[in-house]
Design goal:
Elements lengths: L3 H30 L9 H7 L11 H10 L5 H30 L6 H31 L1 H4 L5
Helix pairs in contact: 1-3, 1-5, 4-5
């Protein structure tokens, strides 16, 4: 049986993963902001020279299982937060897919308009990562007692 501490561990693991990827994306954006257009690099060259971008591996498996099997034991607010995290995870995946598709489709481009859209899409991914991190933190903060308990 999955206990609250199991999905608490999963949340913490996902937080760490997203935080690591977020830091890389913030560095990528900073490099982009600090003169990318002046270097006349293509998107592909820029991404390659900057160490690339990553996709966070977010796991909500035990969250989904727990909600599906123990929903009657959970308070509405907790269920709502878990569903919100699931939605934000899906939105982040969509944003990342759009960003990656754009980067690959324009890998040999260095046109100013293309670069600007690349930057906007990166900011959108960063926003999604930050939003998901905040949701995880809120969930942990608001449900400390419950998540530290052990259900039989």
């Amino acid at each position: 049986m999955i206990v609250p501490s199991a999905f608490k561990s999963e949340i913490i693991s996902s937080q760490r993963e997203i935080d690591t990827v977020l830091e890389r994306h913030l560095e990528l954006y900073e490099k982009l902001e600090n003169g990318f257009l002046e270097n006349e690099q293509t998107i592909g060259e820029f991404v390659s020279n900057s160490g690339g971008f990553q996709v966070a591996s977010v796991k909500n498996i035990s969250l989904r299982f727990f909600v599906a099997n123990k929903a009657e034991l959970l308070e509405f607010e907790l269920i709502s937060q878990l569903l919100d995290i699931e939605l934000k995870t899906t939105l982040l995946a969509t944003k990342m897919e759009r960003f990656a598709d754009f980067a690959y489709e324009n890998v040999n481009e260095n046109d100013e308009k293309v670069m600007l859209k690349f930057a906007y899409l990166l900011v959108d991914v960063i926003d999604g990562e930050q939003t998901l991190l905040e949701s995880y933190s809120d969930l942990l903060d608001e449900n400390k007692k419950y998540l530290n308990s052990r259900m039989k």
